[in-house]
Every structure is written in structure tokens, then in C-alpha cells.
């Protein structure tokens, strides 16, 4: 197992129980690297042994990082909820970029990263 410098609680927004999905692979790698992934998706009760929450506001806090696996149309209605969670960082994975969300998050003092969670973990940039 790879140990992180500091274990983080990471909300995986758009988490999926399907192994072929990148959100699932992120859950898997976050666990492998010693972080605590918190899956967020109203359609599921559990993913990879972790309780799944319908909304970020339902998840236990504090949330250190939100990693986003939703397209702009699905993430825009969640802007206020994401900001209210007060994560230190928001990672917009490929295909999940959202300019309005990025602007609002930065205004709220949240670091915004356009990058791939999987690559960041594997290259020790997480």
C-alpha cells in the first residue's frame, strides 16, 4: 500500500459502482493510497464498502478535497452545495470542467485543479 503524506477525506462526486468508470477507479486508488473516499451519488447505498451519500451535505465532514466526475450540466446545480462543504481543494477531472463552478470556488478560497485524480495519485501530486 502506498501511504499518503497526509490522509485526506475525499468526496467523490459522481461516484459509481461500475469498475470501468473512472470514478470507481478513483475510489479504488484513493483507498489504496490510504485516503478516505466518500462516495456521493443519490442512486447508490454503498460503493467499494463505503457508505454512499446522496449529497455532499449529507456526508460526514470535514471534506478535504472534492474530486468531480460530473459534466457541467450536472455539476452546475451543485455549486452552492460544493462551496458550502468548504473543501480545501476541488479537482475537476477530464470531462468535468466547469468554468462557473471554478470561478465561484476560487472566490470562496477553494483551490481549483483541472487534472486527473488517478494521475495525481500515481505521480505523488495529490
In short:
The protein is of the alpha/beta class. The chain has 5 helices and 7 strands, in the order βαββββααβαβα.
What kind of sheet is the major sheet?
5 strands, parallel
Envelope shape: globular
> What order do the helices and strands follow?
EHEEEEHHEHEH
Helix proportion range: 25-40%
Structure description:
29% of the residues lie in helices and 21% in strands. The protein is α/β, with parallel strands linked by helices and 126 residues long. The protein has one domain: Rossmann fold (3-Layer(aba) Sandwich). A five-stranded parallel sheet has the order 2-1-5-6-7, sandwiched between helices. The protein is globular.
Quickly list its features.
alpha/beta; 5 helices; 126 residues; five-stranded parallel sheet; Rossmann fold; 29% helix; two-stranded antiparallel sheet
